[in-house]
Every structure is written in C-alpha cells, then in structure tokens.
Amino acid sequence: MRKVYITGVGFITSIGNSAVAVSESLRELRHGIVQFPPFQKAEVPVKVAAPIRDFQTDTTDAEDWIFPARYNIRRETLRGMAPHGIYAYCAMQQAVEDAKLTEADWSNPHTGLYAASAGSPFLLGHHLERMRKMGVMRCAPLGVVAAISGTVNFNLVSQFKIKGASTGFSSACASSAHALGFAYDEIKLGRQKRMFVVGAEDGNVESILPFAGMRALSLQHDPSIASRPFDVARDGFVGTGGAAVLVLEGEEEVARRRAKVYGEVAGWGQASDGYNVAISHPDGAGLRMAIENALNYTDVTVESVDYVNAHATSTPIGDLSEARALKSIFQNSPTRPAISSTKALTGHGLSLAGAMEAGFCALAMKEGFMPGSAHISKIDPACEGLNIIRATLPHQPNVILSNSSGFGGANVCLVFKSV
User: How far apart are CA 124 and CA 148, in angstroms?
Assistant: First the structure.
C-alpha cells in the first residue's frame, strides 16, 4: 500500500495566522492567551481565553465581519458560514497555496475533504431565538447550514468544488484527529489520491463558556499561568478557536507534482475507554490501547519514538490519565521521548485540536525542532519518569506520536515520520 505525506498546511490560530508565525511562536514558547474582554464581568468566573487576531466575527451578520484583505470571500459565500467557517476558508487558501495546488489538482473525483467542527452555538442560538420571536418564515435561508455541525465541510466542499469523498466527524476533542486518520486510510487504500483535513471552532463565548459548568475551565486571571499542562497547580483548560488545514497526498501524487513534503503520515490507532461520558479513564486505558494500536499498525517501536505531542489540556484529571498512559507505554524503553503539550501556548481548540497539533508536528519535522511545554513551575509528581521538556529543543524528531482524546472516552494516536 502507498505511503501518505503532508504536502501543505494552513493555520488561523491564537499563536499565529500563518505557518511562519506559528513556527516562531512554537519555537519561542509565545502563547496566545489573554484576558478575554467578553469574560470581564462580575458574574463570569472565567477570565481568560486564546482569541484569534485580525478577524472580527462577533456579530450575527456575516456581512459585518472583518478579515485580512488578502482573503477574497464573496458576500454570498459568507452568508452560509459560521465564524469558524471563515477561519477554515482562509486556512484552506493557505494550504492550497503552500502545497502549490491548482484547481485541476483539487477539484476532481480523486481529491476529498474530511472536516471536524462542533457547529456554531453562537449562530444556532441566534437563529433559534429569531424563529421563536419572529416566526419561522423570518429565519435566514442559510441559517441552518451556517450553524449546525458539518457547516465547515458543507462550505468548503461547495466553495472549492471538491468532488471526492467528503464528510464531517464528531467525536468532540478527538474529531479532527479522527478526520486525519480516516483521510489517511482513504489514500492508503487507493480510494483517493489527495485529501484535505480540516479542524475548526468558533472560539467565542458560546463555544467556550459552557465548559465552566463542567468545572473544566481554568479560573486563573493571569494568562501566563492559566494553561499549564502537567503542572501540579493546573486547574483547567483555556478555550480557543480558529482553524487548521492539512493536505495529504499519496506518494504517486507527490512524485508526479514533485511536491515538497513536511513528513510522512505513518499511520494511526484508536480505542475507547468504555468508562465515562465526560471523564477520561483514571489509568488512561483507552489512550494506552490507542497508542499500542498505532505502534503495532505502523511497525514503529517504542524505542524509536522521539517526540510526543500530548493531548494534555491542563485539567487535573485528563493530564493525569494521559501521564499514566504514557508511563505504561514507555516504562520499559531505554530511551525517553521528549513530551510536551502545545496547548500551554494555544489553549484547547476542542474539535480543532487534533488537526492543529498535527500541523505543529508537520512544522517540527520539516524545520527540525521539538516545542517545549510552557508555563510549568512544578511538574506534577505523578509525571515523574516522563521526559516533559520545558524548553524547545533544536532537534529534528524522526518519529512523532500525537494524541487526542474526546468525550465518551474516544482516543486517537497519530504517527508521523520525518523524511
């Protein structure tokens, strides 16, 4: 079966809106977390978030949205989009340009698109309230496709004239990692020659603040310590939004186009906890199995893993669960891979996280570095024995694992190799 490579990336994130900006932030451990203006109210206990810069999408009328001038988006296109739809559209343009694709390359039966998003609670609430107050026939004609889960793939498939396989994935914080894994399968099995993988989230009040009710968000006021995965004093995650797009291509297409390559997608594994609707298994059982499945499928040995991009979101339970899973995997290894969570810089992108962090791994492979795990004052004693790096290392990782976990105990481990 053919090999699969990453040939293009695009980013709209809290740490930068281009591959160059994102790479600099990862290397320098520059975070994107701020005191978020909509949260600065006495009745809101959460104060920080990691917003997207250079975009204004806080109104329900898409025609009032502001975005960088380099992106040309028609008015009729905007009407069917959520805020994260415009992020995804712009990241898609970046990825297409980065991979040097022509419309003939992507608009054909051999190119598909798999996406992940939770929809837009912001717009869904608005349209439902309008229906109740003004009547069903006063609803926006494109309100449904702009608001519901799947809005990203609806828009990108139609606007970019995608003719191959397309669908959306919904497994909470594992969603876009699932999208990438199944996109890999499409190419590996010869069903498609090229796949776009997209993750996107609004990152606004409606998509972040409800997690406060779960006691999942950090209550820190200081942005520099709010997201600190693996720290003994971590108290919850910081919400973010944005979009990330990756271009995956089979080796024949890479050779035909003489395309530049970030790295190889070597394979993936998944498994479920079968434990709790919202809480990770205390021992990380499902994640451990997902990692084992990924290693077995790819014939990658534990000893050959150089770097792990951890899912760790900075929650007390989740980080501990992942630490136990990683310790069980690497406990007998004579080598200790570098481990970090880039969510210390970006915040947690929910369904966006898997694709965004896969993009970070692509940059790390191509540019030769391993990003550190920022904001740690004292590592949780439960993580003793793990090589959690606090500073960026100037070394190229040859084999990377990238973990994602979602509600219901859905776990995904992606495996990447440098070329």
Answer: 7
Kindly report, residue by residue over 362-401, the tens digit of the pLDDT: 999 999 999 999 999 999 999 999 999 999 999 999 999 9
- What sign does the dihedral 292-200-246-397 (CA atoms) show? negative
Spatial separation of the C-alpha atoms in residues 226 and 236, rounded to whole Å: 8
Rg (CA), the chain: 20
Residue 1 has a pLDDT of 78
Tokens of 15: 């740490």
* Distance in angstroms (rounded) separating the CA atoms of residues 111 and 106: 6
Distance separating alpha carbons of residues 15 and 345, to the nearest angstrom:
7
Q: Which pair of structure tokens corresponds to residue 254?
A: 């890479």
Of 176, 197, 169, 223, residue with least CA distance to 39: 223
Record the tokens describing residue 276, joined without a space.
């709790």
pTM (2 decimals)? 0.98
In DSSP terms, 102 is beta-bridged to: none
Cβ-proximal residues to 397 (8 Å cutoff; 6+ apart), any chain? 306, 307, 338, 361, 364, 365, 370, 418
Report how far apart the first and last C-alpha atoms of the chain are (Å, whole number).
18
- Of 172, 226, 228, the C-alpha closest to 36 is 226
C-alpha span between 271 and 104 (Å, rounded)? 37
CA distance 416 to 400: 5
Asked whether 336 and 305 are in contact (CB, 8 A), the reply is: no
Q: Which two tokens stand for residue 174?
A: 């594992």
CATH dotted code for 1-407: 3.40.47.10
CA atoms within 13 A on the CB side of 17: 17
Q: Hey, which residues are catalytic here?
A: 173, 311, 348
Mean pLDDT computed over every residue of the chain: 97
| Gap between the Cα atoms of 25 and 376, Å rounded | 17
Residue 360 in tokens:
């970070």
Strands (DSSP E) found in 326-418: 338-340, 399-406, 410-417
